[in-house]
Structure prediction request, 1437 residues.
Amino acid sequence: MKKVKVLFAWLLTFILLFVSSFVVSGEPDNNIAGAANAALPSGNMENICTKGDFTLFASMLTGEFAVRNNASGKIWYSNPADKENDPFAGTDKSKTFSLLALQYIEEDTLVQGFITGYEAQENGGVSVEKTDDGISVFYKYDDLRIAVPLDISLTDKGIKASINVKKIHEESNKKILNISMLPYFCAGNTKDDGYIVVPDGCGALIDFNSGRQDFASYSQPLYGRDVTVSGDTNTKQEENSALPLFGIKKGDMGFAAIITKGDAAASIVAGVSKKGSGYNNTYADFTLRSTDKVVISGNSMDVYEQNKSRLGSICVEYRLLSGDNADYTGIAKEYAKYLVDGGVKPLQKDKFSLVIETYGAVRVNRSVLGIPTKVTQPLTTFDEAGEIVDELKQNGAQNITLLFNDYDKSSVYGKLTKSVSPLSKLGGTGDLKKLNERLKEAGAALVSIMDITTYQNGFFKNRKSTVGLGGLPGVSYSFDLGTNKADDSIKPYYHLAPALLQKNAEKLAKKFDNGKYGALGLENFACNIYSDFSKSRPASREESVKLFGEAAKLLSKDNDVYMQGGASWAMPYTDYIYDMPSDTSHSDIESRQIPLYELAISGIIPYSLTAVNRSVEPDVAILKCAEYGGDIKYDFAYENLGVVGESELSYLNSTYYGQWKDYAAQSYKKLAEFSDVLCGEMLSHERVAENVYLTTYENGRVLVNYNEKAVKIGNTAVNARDFTVSREVN
Amino acid sequence: MTRKIICIITVSLMLFTVFASSVSAVSPYEGYRYDYWDTALPMPNGYDATEIITAQEMKLDKLGKTESTVLSEPSDLFCAPDGSFYIADSGNDRILKLNNNFECTKEFVTFTLKNGEKTTLSGPSGIFVDEKGVMYIADTGNTRVLVCDQSGKVSGELQKPTADIFPEGVDFTATKVLKDQRGIIYVLVDGLYYGAASFDRNYQFTGFYGSNKVKLSASQLIELAWRKIFPEDSAQYQASYVPLELSNICIDANGYVYTCTSTKNTTEKIRKLNGNGLNILKESSFGDAQATYENGVSTDTSFVDLAVDDSGFINALDYTRGRVFQYDEEGELMFVFGGTGDQQGLFQMPVAVETYGDNVYVLDKQKRSITVFKPNELAEKIHYAISLYNKGLYDDAIEPWNEVLRTDTGNTFAYKSIGKAYFAQEKYELAMQYYKQGQDRTGYSKAYKEYRTQKIRNNFPLIAVVASVIVIAVFVYIKRVKLAPVLAHVGIKVKTEKDFTPPTGIKCIGSILRHPIDGYSEMKYHKSGKLSVAIGIVAVWFVFMILKYTSTGFAYNGNKPGRINIGIILLSTVCMVLLWAVANWSLCTLLDGEGKFMEILIHSTYALVPYVASIGITVLLSNVLTLDEGAFISWITFFGLLWSGMLLYCAVMTVHNYSGGKTFVCLFLTVCAMVVIAFLIILAFTLVQQMVSFAVTIWQEVSFRTY
Prediction:
């Protein structure tokens, strides 16, 4: 018995020792990480509050803060812990000490300035207060007479940083243009291993310390560049950013940042170390006032939005990730959760589809009996479209979705679309309805595509158009490919004022009821958000998103809506996304592309990638469908116009159906064989070797090899430019 | 000023609509080609930027000795025959050698001269390495060229030649250097306009090679004349006559030397020189077709470097817009890729281009990196098809070209090539169709000739019958009076008695054509010329001019289909006639002319008939004649013009009752008056235009200020 007691006492001692050592062991671990001592963050920080697993610490002097995961002991810093000793400190040094940075303009001289939180700290202009769930930092710049309140609050997933723009004081002639929020949150130093995730197109990675400091930093607005501001000058070829999502992976921790308010006014910025500072960082930069250049009597002049910013408030939610979740899959899936929590209903995808976009007609210059006239040249009649579907079906393709484009009179004539009027040259309303029935019988679906925002012609084109900062219609030009100058031979495109969109949508919704023309496809709708600076019906980008969203809601009430390249704001009203970006803008600083967008949307909204026959390497485009889990898409014209020498027909390049039909059916069959795998949710994605990628779906795994020679990964061999599917999921 | 007016009219008459092209995969740059009319049309990209090599990828930090782990103003890139790369790292005064994975294996900083002394470089900006590994370094800052081996031992030092022909005022600031298969070294020197300074194997200066031709424009000729008259002013004009400075020089596998010039707005920007320094490229225009200006500065293509690959494709680097233009060995444009910007494949300050295998490499001085471009499937297919085509294997090329056309529907080269194959197969109709799409008028005409021969041969009996019927009918018509009794038998009545009433209206044309002076006199006397007929003639002229634009046979028709400008045609027909009449009338009232305005108008218009008819006939003939038979068309046009001119002379003479000499004076003065009137109209037009633009500006300002 005594023995037992002694044994028990020993055991107890052991347990106590063990537990105590466990508690203490947090310290050395963190020391190895090189950032903090003990489980407390470095610097002079107070414990503010705790929620779920997280505890917030903050300096009551500067507002700098740190969040600790109480389970793992990991700490996320708002500013780099070793910033005082940054050997590469340069132009961005003050930013590394700050929670925000402002760009402002002087009203009279139009001189732009830049200031960060650091300057306010130096001059004692920072006051920090505790709030219920975090802190409130108030920045006062006495010399500029600007004051900005920043709220940091703890959530059960991480933290939230927000600014109520309405509460910003601007008393002098200095106006704030941009606000950068938490520019160095969780930034990686030159020794850290990790990457930055940005939502460029399908998504891109920027490796830490990639040595690309000589290149421009990454900076891209969400939801496309504003055509009202830059449509007349911007010749940059780029993909849009469709998700308000960015993040960092740093060692085995990281974060996913979701911009929950003011996303339409935000740009995502990212930079690598040794350019201005020794850190790799990413953040959201919000535009409070737009700037532009206006040419008046040959002189270019800087202009900016002078009124009070129309932005309500801005808010970025940082969800802190660690362990296995801290990678781009985890970042993407965090956004998927956010979408579903926000009320987007996941749509089940049960079949692998072949998506065909056909072009109805085009207006061309022809001479009829020697007299030059513009004629409507049919490309694909409704009957021919039916034939295409039948023929593809005979060749083994199933689940065909036919997107019919350029069939409507107003769209072919370049006018603003308000109703449905199928061209009689293509067969008219009757044939379109017949096509709808025919496709239904064949087990295919018809989608009628409309562009309800852009137009070139029309009597009231100026009145309905957006207005730029210079007071002129906010048109966008086509540019001569050789000279990069606006091409006068092509009429500029006008953009419908967002305030007038609702009325148009109402008219269209009435015409489109009962799905007699199939589902509704919206082209150029969810790709680009633009603002309107008109006096009578102004709309900021944020308001524009709201107005576009309302229009989409209205149209989706009685119709299935297919969106081209759907942006996040449109997702609640989207049944299908076509032309989903599968590429990035290839910014210099980007290391490689990732399917961030696809990972986030897969399992929620079905999608197809851009057309295979538009790619110069169609075989690769097919592999991409397997890797990115998208339906396969082709763009077709039934007629071969032999498009030589006519720039208005050059968009038909590589779309002649006759040359592609066998290829299309075959490529579909190749992928549809694995329909059960490819239709499942995409669970993760990783690069396993140079140009070899592994995608894990719910029901299987796909290994894609883009190399021009066969590779062997583990026990799986993959042929050159091919993929293999295994139906086991580990 | 006329151009301005034409522009306004063009713009106002253009009613083109173009529809939004659909969103496709975005790459940072869009490929394009120039069509027959020099319009840039989009084409799928042939080259993709696959890799970017910065100092980090070069592993400069692993060199150990060196302090500088970054590049500083790298200004030249050279790919040696063994696949290693050399960079002239000007800012760091060194040459870097990279292996074919772009890892730096060696840096050359100090060199040993023959006398054992050490020497260093100063801002080297050109490097060439031969197959034995001997380096030729343009040591720009030290005004010399160093020849040295891989251990840094200098075997030769080229310095400013002492020869008289080398201009004294020019320093030997060597920028680029090249050695050809014969061992001759070519050095480009900053500020030297006589071509490349060439040195023989013993490093002795032998002269200049490959200077650009000097072309004098009209204004320069005037200047030249001025200089003859006032020789003391000559100094200030001298600059305009010096030949263009070469910007770079390279050599291909066959020993041809290529040069490029960065001078803007010039032809022969790229030349392929034979041993005698003569250009053997057929094409003479390179780079972008349209020159534009920004703030008065030309933004035309300016080539700074070129590289020719083993298949003879010429890659030329445009500094202005950061693009690589790839031409085939004949100088025909294949691909354009690259651009300016912050994306992969775009540049800030591209300075050097190289090729190795199929890849193209571009060095950017500001981005301090090398961009690797790889040809994609499409480019590989096109290159393959072209190689077959160049070997004359047109039949074998059909299949690859068809595959190319599936993706690149507008590839004119493909159409041309397939056309050639079908021509060889004697499928002339098909060949014609393909030649037409390939905009190859010569090929089309040849194919048409065979096609026509075939047609005539096959339908000879029918053609013979139709021809004889026509000949007989014409004969009968001419001899109708004599043959009247015979014709009466077959039931055709012929008016045999002469009609003595003077011809009116349209019938006057006949008599004027046959007896111009009598015809016109009669017409004036009887006032039988009709305004309606005159309007009719002008209308026919107008219609024929439109037909000439649209319906001239393809072989003769270089006009862009569907892009006719009715305004210009209206100006050159109707307005011209009115202008003539007004000028002549106002002039002749002063010169005692008897003609009234209406008479002048009607009589002059009648004179146009032969010319108008010649237009109609040539349009018809151009559809059945080949290019070889083009002389017919020229002769008919010439004859029509001559006849009309003669008639016009008679018309003026009779209507004003002038003597022959006075008529000549009158015609000359009328033309002068027309010029004056046209000038006044244009002046007024410009004034109005400026007023309008002024008003628009004010409106813009006001609406902007009140915003």
